[in-house]
Amino acid sequence: MKTLLVASVALFLCLSSCKKKHSGNSGEELPDVELKTRVVTSALSHIWEMVYGPDQQLWITERLGKISRINPQSGTITPVYTISEVVANGEGGLLGMALHPQFNTTPWVFVVYNYGSPYKEKVVRFTYSGGTLTSPLVILDQIPASSIHNGSRLLITSDQKLLITTGDASVSSNAQDMNSLSGKILRINLDGSIPADNPVAGSRVWSLGHRNAQGLVEANGKLYASEHGPNNDDEVNLIAKGRNYGWPSVEGYCNTSGEQTFCAANNVMEPMMAWTPTIATSGLTYYDSDFIPQWKNSLLLVSLKGARLTQLKLNQARDQVSGSKDFFLNEFGRLRAICQSPEGKIYLGSSNGNGDKIIEITK
Protein backbone atom coordinates (compact mmCIF):
# COMPACT_ATOMS: atom_id res chain seq x y z
CA MET A 1 0.00 0.00 0.00
CA LYS A 2 2.85 2.36 0.89
CA THR A 3 4.49 1.67 -2.51
CA LEU A 4 1.19 2.34 -4.27
CA LEU A 5 0.75 5.60 -2.36
CA VAL A 6 4.27 6.78 -3.27
CA ALA A 7 3.65 5.91 -6.90
CA SER A 8 0.34 7.77 -6.88
CA VAL A 9 1.95 10.88 -5.36
CA ALA A 10 4.78 10.70 -7.91
CA LEU A 11 2.27 10.42 -10.76
CA PHE A 12 0.32 13.40 -9.43
CA LEU A 13 3.49 15.50 -9.15
CA CYS A 14 4.54 14.55 -12.67
CA LEU A 15 1.13 15.43 -14.07
CA SER A 16 1.05 18.79 -12.31
CA SER A 17 4.61 19.74 -13.25
CA CYS A 18 5.02 18.02 -16.63
CA LYS A 19 1.74 18.69 -18.35
CA LYS A 20 2.68 22.30 -18.94
CA LYS A 21 6.01 21.40 -20.46
CA HIS A 22 4.69 18.77 -22.84
CA SER A 23 1.96 20.88 -24.36
CA GLY A 24 0.53 21.01 -27.84
CA ASN A 25 -3.05 22.06 -28.54
CA SER A 26 -4.51 23.47 -25.35
CA GLY A 27 -6.97 25.94 -23.86
CA GLU A 28 -10.29 27.06 -25.28
CA GLU A 29 -11.91 25.25 -28.20
CA LEU A 30 -11.43 27.36 -31.31
CA PRO A 31 -13.98 27.45 -34.13
CA ASP A 32 -13.51 25.68 -37.44
CA VAL A 33 -12.84 27.95 -40.39
CA GLU A 34 -13.78 27.25 -44.00
CA LEU A 35 -10.75 28.31 -45.98
CA LYS A 36 -9.78 28.28 -49.65
CA THR A 37 -6.23 27.69 -50.82
CA ARG A 38 -4.62 28.53 -54.13
CA VAL A 39 -1.08 27.78 -55.24
CA VAL A 40 0.39 31.05 -56.52
CA THR A 41 3.53 29.37 -57.85
CA SER A 42 5.40 26.11 -57.40
CA ALA A 43 8.63 27.03 -59.18
CA LEU A 44 10.82 27.93 -56.19
CA SER A 45 13.47 26.27 -54.04
CA HIS A 46 13.79 26.52 -50.26
CA ILE A 47 11.75 29.67 -49.69
CA TRP A 48 13.09 31.28 -46.54
CA GLU A 49 11.52 34.72 -46.23
CA MET A 50 8.39 36.27 -47.66
CA VAL A 51 7.28 39.90 -47.28
CA TYR A 52 4.17 41.53 -48.75
CA GLY A 53 5.66 44.66 -50.29
CA PRO A 54 4.13 48.13 -50.73
CA ASP A 55 4.22 47.41 -54.49
CA GLN A 56 1.59 44.66 -53.91
CA GLN A 57 4.20 42.04 -54.74
CA LEU A 58 5.50 39.17 -52.61
CA TRP A 59 9.20 39.66 -51.95
CA ILE A 60 10.95 36.36 -51.24
CA THR A 61 14.36 34.98 -50.47
CA GLU A 62 15.52 31.51 -51.47
CA ARG A 63 18.27 29.91 -49.46
CA LEU A 64 20.66 29.56 -52.41
CA GLY A 65 20.87 33.35 -52.71
CA LYS A 66 18.01 34.56 -54.92
CA ILE A 67 15.74 37.51 -54.15
CA SER A 68 12.58 37.78 -56.26
CA ARG A 69 9.29 39.60 -56.51
CA ILE A 70 6.18 37.52 -57.23
CA ASN A 71 2.83 38.75 -58.47
CA PRO A 72 0.29 37.19 -56.07
CA GLN A 73 -2.44 37.16 -58.76
CA SER A 74 -0.56 35.71 -61.72
CA GLY A 75 2.33 33.95 -60.00
CA THR A 76 4.81 35.70 -62.30
CA ILE A 77 8.32 35.60 -60.81
CA THR A 78 10.49 38.67 -61.39
CA PRO A 79 14.13 38.16 -60.36
CA VAL A 80 15.51 41.08 -58.36
CA TYR A 81 19.03 40.07 -57.37
CA THR A 82 21.21 37.04 -56.68
CA ILE A 83 23.81 37.40 -53.94
CA SER A 84 26.80 35.50 -55.31
CA GLU A 85 28.59 35.63 -51.95
CA VAL A 86 25.98 33.40 -50.29
CA VAL A 87 27.17 29.95 -49.24
CA ALA A 88 24.28 27.55 -48.63
CA ASN A 89 25.82 25.09 -46.19
CA GLY A 90 23.29 22.73 -44.57
CA GLU A 91 20.58 24.97 -43.13
CA GLY A 92 22.60 28.08 -43.92
CA GLY A 93 22.38 30.45 -46.87
CA LEU A 94 20.26 33.49 -47.65
CA LEU A 95 17.80 33.78 -44.77
CA GLY A 96 15.73 36.70 -43.48
CA MET A 97 14.73 39.93 -45.20
CA ALA A 98 12.99 43.16 -44.19
CA LEU A 99 11.85 46.18 -46.23
CA HIS A 100 12.02 49.69 -44.81
CA PRO A 101 8.54 50.72 -43.55
CA GLN A 102 8.67 53.86 -45.75
CA PHE A 103 9.88 51.87 -48.73
CA ASN A 104 8.46 54.23 -51.36
CA THR A 105 10.69 57.05 -50.13
CA THR A 106 13.45 54.98 -48.49
CA PRO A 107 13.78 51.87 -50.69
CA TRP A 108 16.07 49.90 -48.39
CA VAL A 109 16.13 46.10 -48.36
CA PHE A 110 17.83 44.41 -45.41
CA VAL A 111 18.97 40.79 -45.76
CA VAL A 112 20.94 38.38 -43.59
CA TYR A 113 23.00 35.54 -45.04
CA ASN A 114 25.81 33.06 -44.44
CA TYR A 115 29.05 33.20 -46.39
CA GLY A 116 32.79 32.54 -46.37
CA SER A 117 35.25 30.13 -44.86
CA PRO A 118 35.31 30.06 -41.91
CA TYR A 119 31.52 30.18 -42.14
CA LYS A 120 29.89 33.31 -40.77
CA GLU A 121 26.82 35.52 -41.10
CA LYS A 122 26.21 39.16 -41.88
CA VAL A 123 23.42 41.69 -42.33
CA VAL A 124 23.55 43.86 -45.45
CA ARG A 125 21.40 46.83 -46.45
CA PHE A 126 20.73 47.27 -50.17
CA THR A 127 18.91 50.02 -52.05
CA TYR A 128 16.22 48.97 -54.53
CA SER A 129 16.66 50.91 -57.77
CA GLY A 130 15.80 50.17 -61.37
CA GLY A 131 14.37 46.76 -60.56
CA THR A 132 17.51 45.48 -58.84
CA LEU A 133 19.49 45.91 -55.62
CA THR A 134 22.40 48.36 -55.48
CA SER A 135 24.74 50.05 -53.01
CA PRO A 136 25.31 47.20 -50.52
CA LEU A 137 26.19 48.42 -47.03
CA VAL A 138 27.29 45.95 -44.36
CA ILE A 139 25.26 46.67 -41.22
CA LEU A 140 26.62 43.87 -39.03
CA ASP A 141 29.24 41.20 -39.72
CA GLN A 142 31.10 38.36 -38.02
CA ILE A 143 28.01 36.69 -36.57
CA PRO A 144 28.99 33.06 -35.89
CA ALA A 145 27.40 30.57 -38.31
CA SER A 146 27.21 26.82 -38.79
CA SER A 147 25.48 24.24 -40.94
CA ILE A 148 22.67 24.39 -38.34
CA HIS A 149 21.17 26.94 -35.92
CA ASN A 150 21.72 30.22 -37.77
CA GLY A 151 18.41 31.95 -37.02
CA SER A 152 17.68 34.36 -38.64
CA ARG A 153 14.65 36.60 -38.98
CA LEU A 154 14.87 40.34 -39.48
CA LEU A 155 12.27 42.79 -38.23
CA ILE A 156 12.09 46.57 -38.36
CA THR A 157 10.11 47.66 -35.33
CA SER A 158 7.72 50.56 -34.91
CA ASP A 159 10.54 52.61 -33.34
CA GLN A 160 12.70 52.13 -36.45
CA LYS A 161 15.15 49.62 -34.98
CA LEU A 162 16.36 46.45 -36.69
CA LEU A 163 15.97 43.20 -34.77
CA ILE A 164 17.97 40.12 -35.76
CA THR A 165 17.46 36.62 -34.37
CA THR A 166 20.65 34.57 -34.23
CA GLY A 167 21.00 30.86 -33.51
CA ASP A 168 23.61 29.33 -31.26
CA ALA A 169 25.54 28.13 -34.36
CA SER A 170 26.08 24.69 -32.80
CA VAL A 171 27.82 26.13 -29.70
CA SER A 172 25.01 26.13 -27.16
CA SER A 173 27.00 27.84 -24.40
CA ASN A 174 27.32 30.99 -26.54
CA ALA A 175 23.61 31.67 -26.01
CA GLN A 176 24.43 32.70 -22.41
CA ASP A 177 27.60 34.62 -23.30
CA MET A 178 26.89 38.34 -23.54
CA ASN A 179 30.11 38.78 -25.51
CA SER A 180 28.86 36.47 -28.28
CA LEU A 181 26.37 37.45 -31.00
CA SER A 182 25.09 33.84 -31.06
CA GLY A 183 21.82 32.68 -29.52
CA LYS A 184 20.38 36.16 -29.16
CA ILE A 185 17.89 38.67 -30.41
CA LEU A 186 20.01 41.65 -31.42
CA ARG A 187 18.79 45.25 -31.71
CA ILE A 188 20.58 47.87 -33.78
CA ASN A 189 19.84 51.13 -35.53
CA LEU A 190 19.20 51.03 -39.27
CA ASP A 191 22.75 52.25 -39.90
CA GLY A 192 24.23 49.45 -37.77
CA SER A 193 25.01 51.52 -34.69
CA ILE A 194 23.94 50.47 -31.20
CA PRO A 195 20.83 52.16 -29.76
CA ALA A 196 21.37 54.13 -26.56
CA ASP A 197 18.36 52.47 -24.91
CA ASN A 198 19.51 48.85 -25.33
CA PRO A 199 19.52 46.82 -22.09
CA VAL A 200 23.33 47.00 -21.70
CA ALA A 201 25.21 50.08 -22.86
CA GLY A 202 27.34 49.36 -25.91
CA SER A 203 25.80 45.91 -26.47
CA ARG A 204 23.59 44.85 -29.37
CA VAL A 205 21.89 42.20 -27.23
CA TRP A 206 18.16 42.69 -26.66
CA SER A 207 17.51 39.21 -25.22
CA LEU A 208 19.63 36.10 -24.71
CA GLY A 209 19.35 32.36 -24.15
CA HIS A 210 17.89 31.48 -27.56
CA ARG A 211 18.66 28.24 -29.38
CA ASN A 212 17.44 28.95 -32.92
CA ALA A 213 14.67 31.52 -33.29
CA GLN A 214 13.15 31.56 -36.80
CA GLY A 215 9.98 33.57 -36.28
CA LEU A 216 9.64 37.19 -35.16
CA VAL A 217 6.72 39.63 -35.17
CA GLU A 218 5.72 42.86 -33.41
CA ALA A 219 2.08 43.66 -32.65
CA ASN A 220 0.32 46.01 -30.24
CA GLY A 221 3.60 47.06 -28.67
CA LYS A 222 4.62 43.46 -27.96
CA LEU A 223 7.27 41.28 -29.56
CA TYR A 224 6.84 37.54 -30.18
CA ALA A 225 9.35 34.95 -31.37
CA SER A 226 9.23 31.25 -32.28
CA GLU A 227 12.18 29.02 -31.52
CA HIS A 228 13.39 25.51 -32.29
CA GLY A 229 13.98 23.26 -29.28
CA PRO A 230 16.25 20.19 -29.25
CA ASN A 231 14.23 16.95 -29.29
CA ASN A 232 11.64 18.61 -27.10
CA ASP A 233 10.20 22.00 -26.30
CA ASP A 234 9.84 24.08 -29.41
CA GLU A 235 8.69 27.45 -28.14
CA VAL A 236 6.73 30.61 -28.81
CA ASN A 237 7.95 33.42 -26.57
CA LEU A 238 6.87 36.89 -25.56
CA ILE A 239 10.13 38.81 -25.89
CA ALA A 240 10.93 41.38 -23.20
CA LYS A 241 13.84 43.79 -23.01
CA GLY A 242 16.93 42.29 -21.42
CA ARG A 243 15.33 38.98 -20.49
CA ASN A 244 16.99 35.58 -20.52
CA TYR A 245 15.17 32.69 -22.27
CA GLY A 246 17.23 29.95 -20.69
CA TRP A 247 18.97 27.95 -23.40
CA PRO A 248 20.94 25.72 -22.93
CA SER A 249 20.25 25.40 -19.19
CA VAL A 250 16.47 25.52 -19.64
CA GLU A 251 14.40 23.64 -22.22
CA GLY A 252 10.87 24.99 -22.38
CA TYR A 253 9.38 25.74 -18.97
CA CYS A 254 11.25 26.05 -15.67
CA ASN A 255 9.92 22.78 -14.31
CA THR A 256 12.87 20.69 -13.15
CA SER A 257 14.80 21.50 -10.00
CA GLY A 258 17.91 22.46 -11.97
CA GLU A 259 15.93 24.63 -14.35
CA GLN A 260 14.09 26.34 -11.50
CA THR A 261 17.38 27.23 -9.82
CA PHE A 262 18.78 28.67 -13.07
CA CYS A 263 15.54 30.52 -13.85
CA ALA A 264 15.42 32.19 -10.45
CA ALA A 265 19.07 33.25 -10.65
CA ASN A 266 18.93 34.52 -14.25
CA ASN A 267 15.53 36.21 -14.61
CA VAL A 268 14.41 33.60 -17.15
CA MET A 269 11.12 34.19 -18.97
CA GLU A 270 9.11 31.05 -19.70
CA PRO A 271 7.52 30.42 -23.10
CA MET A 272 3.91 31.25 -23.87
CA MET A 273 3.65 27.77 -25.36
CA ALA A 274 5.91 24.78 -25.96
CA TRP A 275 5.64 21.65 -28.10
CA THR A 276 6.85 18.14 -27.29
CA PRO A 277 7.12 16.29 -29.65
CA THR A 278 8.68 19.15 -31.57
CA ILE A 279 7.14 20.59 -34.74
CA ALA A 280 10.08 22.82 -35.84
CA THR A 281 8.43 26.20 -35.31
CA SER A 282 9.34 28.78 -37.97
CA GLY A 283 7.62 31.82 -39.53
CA LEU A 284 5.26 33.83 -37.35
CA THR A 285 2.78 36.65 -37.89
CA TYR A 286 0.00 38.37 -35.94
CA TYR A 287 -3.50 38.38 -37.39
CA ASP A 288 -6.19 40.91 -36.46
CA SER A 289 -8.08 41.35 -39.73
CA ASP A 290 -11.84 41.06 -40.23
CA PHE A 291 -11.14 39.17 -43.47
CA ILE A 292 -10.94 35.87 -41.54
CA PRO A 293 -12.67 36.87 -38.29
CA GLN A 294 -12.08 33.52 -36.58
CA TRP A 295 -8.36 34.31 -36.59
CA LYS A 296 -8.60 37.77 -35.02
CA ASN A 297 -6.16 38.43 -32.18
CA SER A 298 -4.10 35.33 -33.00
CA LEU A 299 -0.51 34.51 -33.76
CA LEU A 300 -0.24 32.38 -36.90
CA LEU A 301 2.72 30.02 -36.85
CA VAL A 302 4.07 27.75 -39.57
CA SER A 303 6.20 24.70 -38.88
CA LEU A 304 8.67 22.57 -40.81
CA LYS A 305 8.56 19.12 -39.26
CA GLY A 306 4.99 19.74 -38.15
CA ALA A 307 4.04 20.70 -41.74
CA ARG A 308 1.10 22.82 -40.65
CA LEU A 309 -0.26 26.27 -39.89
CA THR A 310 -1.14 26.74 -36.23
CA GLN A 311 -3.47 29.41 -34.89
CA LEU A 312 -2.49 30.60 -31.41
CA LYS A 313 -5.38 32.60 -30.01
CA LEU A 314 -4.24 35.27 -27.56
CA ASN A 315 -5.96 36.48 -24.41
CA GLN A 316 -7.10 40.10 -24.12
CA ALA A 317 -3.78 41.18 -22.62
CA ARG A 318 -2.04 39.40 -25.51
CA ASP A 319 0.51 37.88 -23.16
CA GLN A 320 -0.83 34.30 -23.05
CA VAL A 321 -2.12 31.72 -25.51
CA SER A 322 -5.75 30.95 -24.72
CA GLY A 323 -6.20 28.21 -27.33
CA SER A 324 -4.66 26.68 -30.45
CA LYS A 325 -5.82 24.99 -33.63
CA ASP A 326 -3.94 23.35 -36.52
CA PHE A 327 -4.66 23.78 -40.24
CA PHE A 328 -3.40 22.18 -43.50
CA LEU A 329 -1.61 19.33 -41.71
CA ASN A 330 0.80 17.64 -44.17
CA GLU A 331 -0.93 19.34 -47.08
CA PHE A 332 2.01 21.38 -48.37
CA GLY A 333 4.99 19.80 -46.63
CA ARG A 334 7.50 21.85 -44.67
CA LEU A 335 6.36 25.44 -44.16
CA ARG A 336 8.97 28.12 -43.45
CA ALA A 337 7.49 31.54 -44.25
CA ILE A 338 4.22 33.40 -43.70
CA CYS A 339 3.00 36.91 -44.49
CA GLN A 340 -0.26 38.82 -44.77
CA SER A 341 -1.67 41.21 -47.34
CA PRO A 342 -3.30 44.49 -46.25
CA GLU A 343 -6.64 42.93 -47.21
CA GLY A 344 -6.10 40.06 -44.78
CA LYS A 345 -5.12 37.24 -47.13
CA ILE A 346 -2.40 34.93 -45.81
CA TYR A 347 0.50 33.60 -47.86
CA LEU A 348 2.57 30.55 -46.91
CA GLY A 349 5.97 29.56 -48.30
CA SER A 350 7.14 25.94 -48.33
CA SER A 351 10.69 24.69 -47.87
CA ASN A 352 10.83 21.17 -49.28
CA GLY A 353 13.73 21.77 -51.67
CA ASN A 354 12.08 21.18 -55.05
CA GLY A 355 8.90 22.66 -56.47
CA ASP A 356 8.46 24.88 -53.44
CA LYS A 357 5.16 26.71 -53.33
CA ILE A 358 3.60 29.95 -52.29
CA ILE A 359 0.06 29.25 -51.13
CA GLU A 360 -2.64 31.91 -50.83
CA ILE A 361 -5.26 31.44 -48.09
CA THR A 362 -8.63 33.16 -48.35
CA LYS A 363 -12.08 32.57 -46.89
UniProtKB/TrEMBL annotation:
SUPFAM superfamilies the record matches: Soluble quinoprotein glucose dehydrogenase
Q: The Glucose/Sorbosone dehydrogenase domain covers which part of the protein?
A: 44-356
Q: Which Pfam families match?
A: GSDH
Q: Which domain of life is it from?
A: Bacteria
Its recorded name reads PQQ-dependent sugar dehydrogenase
Q: Which organism is it from?
A: Pedobacter frigoris
